[in-house]
Amino acid sequence: MRRSIALAALLLLSACAGRQQPVLHPLPAPVTAPVPAPPTGPVIQPPPPAITRARDAGVAVVEMPALPEAAAALAAFRTSCGGVQRREDLSGLTQPADWQAACAAAASVTPGSEEAFFREQFRAVAVAEGKGFATGYYEPEIAASLVRQPGYEVPLYKRPADLIDVPLGDFAPSLKGRTVRGRVQGNRLVPYATREQISGGALVGRSLELAWAADPYEAFFLEIQGSGRLKLPDGRIVRIGYDGQNGRDYVAIGRLLIEQGKLERGKAGMKEIIAWLRANPAEAPAILNANPSKIFFRVLTGEGPVGAMGVAVTPHVSVAADPAFIPLGAPLLVETTLTGPATPFTRLMVAQDTGGAIKGANRIDLFLGPGADAAATAGAQSSPARLTLLIPAAAAARLSP
Prior knowledge:
disordered N terminus, 401 residues
């Protein structure tokens, strides 16, 4: 967070020691130094305060809209109740106790009265006037092996034991919600290895290989999605999920390819990016390494994939959001368009996940499920959205008119 720094001027007072000498001659008239003219250029104003959470972006209570697909949203909300009543809301909009009444009532909602439940327990608010943007993500399935063998040469790594997460809010309340990651070197925390360094062998010899993928570009996009399915040579499926990140900032390689003139704006979805990488194998490693972020995985059991709240996410119901602006576990009405082909999309969803590229007010990622169709839709998804956030009545009552 950028912070204003006030500089205090120091006034130095000095006194001459020893006897005073008598003045024998009149003192000359003082010489007045010329006063410099004021600058004629533009006055540089200090930058505005950074918008770091929902309250900074502006929050207003609005009229409750219609809530289509409320039954599916209620099922997802129930799975989030354990988390919302324990975790701190980084947006500052809610407190754990605010969710108790809604979670208690959610357990006994009868079929057909799901929308009435949301209208009774929640109030509608707009953060940053509800203006947002929606992309999509999915659960990929890629060919992989649990042991290295010919045709399976791309390592998927487990979380290294020396990777340390440091929640900065533990040291300064103004940094709450921010985390740095690195490793200890001597008595300092230093940045962890980049993607390029890891690709060059930084983790070799540490038995961190969880599996070996067949295709480097599919493995790269598996990291972007954060979880997925590994189809093993014998036909078995192993599900893996996010287990940490190296602390480096995410860089969108699609944007990089557009800036370099290698792809056209509007034609730089996942499908087009992979096609370019396959057609340009000599240049591809440098493009991949331009994104220094590296994701680590663990094997998942049971339903999945698992989102940031520790529960399975649901296709067309769960969204990834920035928890500094949308409380994790909160319902929200999403009004957007699914691209390729364009299809209106309006439904009540639940914020149950986060993402390295999902930052800012009303920036969301729609979870579109597993399979080729979901991959095609998610890879093309990029459209403006309008969001209406639902927060418990007790939380809404604390908002200023």
